Amino acid sequence: MLDALSYEFIQNAIIAGILVSIASGIIGSLIVVNRMVFLAGGIAHTSYGGIGLAVYFGIPIFLGASLFAVGAALLIAFITLKHRERTDTFIGLIWAVGMAIGILFVDMTPGYNVDLMSYLFGSILAVSQEDIWFMSALVLTIIFVVTFWYRDILAVSYDSEYALLRGVSVKFFYTLILVLSALTVVIAIKIVGLILVIALLTIPIYIAEKLSNSLYSMMFFSAIISTIFTLLGLFISYNFDITSGASIILVSAMSLVLFLLFLKLKSIFK
């Protein structure tokens, strides 16, 4: 693996893995704390519509997927705030329609034979320099937003009614979290793919939650743990020539099992 570090695509993969891990750790913590896992799943699969549109119109995949995902996030925010009792129905509908739009536009693209596997299960080794710039900009934006509005986000995440009484715009921050989640999902798709993205946004966060006593420390530990899982998964993927996204998630899942086993043994012998 050390010899492989001389290759640019490996360097790009490592940088991208670290950037996505930081974004996933921060936003994944907000997703879990705000109980938005299902909403994030809906956005992840809906974003495939943006991929299809990008392929059809010949625009950058990240741009098409980002715009479509943000649009889906805004729509989901509006629906869930106005019609909470119908959330599951609307999310399922948006999920299915987004995927269908993506598939249809890919099919209609003349002479284009898209590799669906790279979008469904990720392709970290295919990350370009432009992708890294996009990921870097998003990570910096996420860090700025969370740092600048940390107290408001904290209040909204743990007690929205109290936040509302304090004059915090719950609707604004709820929508902001969903939009940032949408953009994080888009860059995570490049690493682990549509199908596995939710695992990356939840498994490291679950472990970090058990080790943390605040939202800030939860974000920090999540980013570190996610980075370890991503780099270890990338190492295994390269050495055994297997899909990187699946490798990263299996490393995460096995680590979670070992962590739960450790907690169980600790409680027994305490």
Layout: helices, strands, pairs:
Layout: H1 8-33, H2 37-46, H3 48-57, H4 61-82, H5 87-108, H6 116-120, H7 129-148, H8 150-158, H9 160-165, H10 170-192, H11 197-211, H12 215-240, H13 244-268
Helix pairs in contact: 1-7, 1-10, 1-11, 1-12, 2-4, 2-5, 2-10, 2-11, 3-4, 3-5, 4-5, 4-10, 7-10, 11-12, 11-13, 12-13
How would you portray this structure in words?
The protein is globular, with a radius of gyration of 19 Å. The chain has one domain (3-202): Orthogonal Bundle (ABC transporter involved in vitamin B12 uptake, BtuC). Helix content is 81%, strand content 0%. It has helices at residues 8-33, 37-46, 48-57, 61-82, 87-108, 116-120, 129-148, 150-158, 160-165, 170-192, 197-211, 215-240, 244-268. It has 13 helices and no strands. The model has no long low-confidence stretch (mean pLDDT 86). Helix 3 packs parallel to helix 5 (87-108). The protein is mostly helical.
Features:
270 residues, single chain, mainly alpha, ABC transporter involved in vitamin B12 uptake, BtuC
Proportion in β-strands: under 5%
Radius of gyration: 19 Å
Write the element-wise H/E pattern from the N-terminal end onward. Answer: HHHHHHHHHHHHH
Segments where pLDDT lies below 50 for 5+ residues?
Answer: none
Indicate the CATH class: Mainly Alpha
Largest sheet: none
Helix and strand content put the structural class at mainly alpha
| Strands, total number | 0
What portion of residues is helical? over 70%
- What's the total helix number? 13
Oligomer: single chain
Euclidean distance between termini CA atoms: 41 Å
CATH architecture type: Orthogonal Bundle
Q: Give the averaged pLDDT, no decimals.
A: 86
Looking at CATH, which topology would you report? Answer: ABC transporter involved in vitamin B12 uptake, BtuC
**Outline type:** globular
Count the domains. Answer: 1
- CATH-assigned homologous superfamily: ABC transporter involved in vitamin B12 uptake, BtuC
